[in-house]
Amino acid sequence: MDKFVQKCPGHPDKREYALPYYLLHNEGDSVYGTVIIFHGFSATTTQMSLLAQYLYENGFNVYQPALCGHYFNKPDQYWPKADFKDDIKKDLVKKLLNDPKLKAYVDNFISISGLPTDYAIGALNCIEKEYPELHEAICDEEYSTAFSKFYKSNHIDYFHEAEQRLKEVESLPGPLMTVGLSMGGAAALSIAATHPDKVARTAVFAPLLKIVNEKNVQFSKLTGPLGAKEKGWYPDMPFSLSLMVAVDIYGHFVRQKKHLDTLAKMPTLIVQTEIDDSADHTVGLRIIKEIEERSGPHGPPHFSTLYTAAERVPHPMVHPLEVSQGSINQFWQSLYQETFRFLTEGTVDINHLHDKNQDLALPRVKDFVANVTVSS
């Protein structure tokens, strides 16, 4: 861990509040095990810091590495992305941007959040007749041969880096468990699914297994390589929409049948929200059903819940101060407690996840943590 954690602070492109860290008990202390925590796409380690601190204070060793490249502040240079293949990109981009209408869609784009569907469809209509094979590639949700004819992607770097972080904690005492939010949820599931001999349990929140609204994904596939950048999330750190395509492809990688077969054999906790504006919760529900069916009546326990639209729980449901869609997760303390219960006992009180009151039988979650300890 030290080699990875210590290389980031001195890097000229380091990103503030995004550095990886660990919280370890003294050697010989009794612990429940080690938890690897992954934050969401484009976010920082601050996003999961309160949960990390809670688990540490109540008997876990905690390692929170940043997602691949997210500890650097130049997304287009360091974060995984999907782009046109090198041998066709220059000529293809030039031809496509010769269309003034399509160029206007690229130049006027600000944010994928709240993007009108008509805007995405309008851009796609610019190429449907003149570039039918490219249009087919863009509409290829399975990322098969049609897509790979035009695109390259290093989305798998998310997996390889998460896998490397897993190797760094193998010598720590107790069972290993993975926890993640959004894209971090996909990372947590992927290393659990590929290393069942090392990971005992996995708990994920709003896992980004498929980006909500396929038209947004298609718009990103087309306009990302043409220069469209997400400018609304971090105005001082815009990034190419090609990065979001890599996220969607990684979610597809995690959803593979062989991974679901493995996840069915270990305890899982999956929490989603009906108003999710980032992760497609309907895909998540289907994955939950498939895992449960594969597990059968005699398999390990699988727990899941869906916050209703009336409960107004946003996609980034872990940090109580992270506002999204004009809301925060009012049940965050119960979420922390049930995560602890799941990681220690392998069970969950689903009803309590929807209750703002804390369970007095579980370690209390502080109302506010002013100073989160970060060891490095």
From TrEMBL:
Domain of life: Eukaryota
InterPro entries per record: AB_hydrolase_fold (IPR029058), Carboxylesterase_BioH (IPR050228), Esterase-like (IPR000801)
Classification via Pfam families: Esterase
Designated name of the protein: Serine aminopeptidase S33 domain-containing protein
SUPFAM superfamilies the record matches: alpha/beta-Hydrolases
Gene, per the UniProt record: LOC112296038
Origin organism lineage: Eukaryota, Viridiplantae, Streptophyta, Embryophyta, Bryophyta
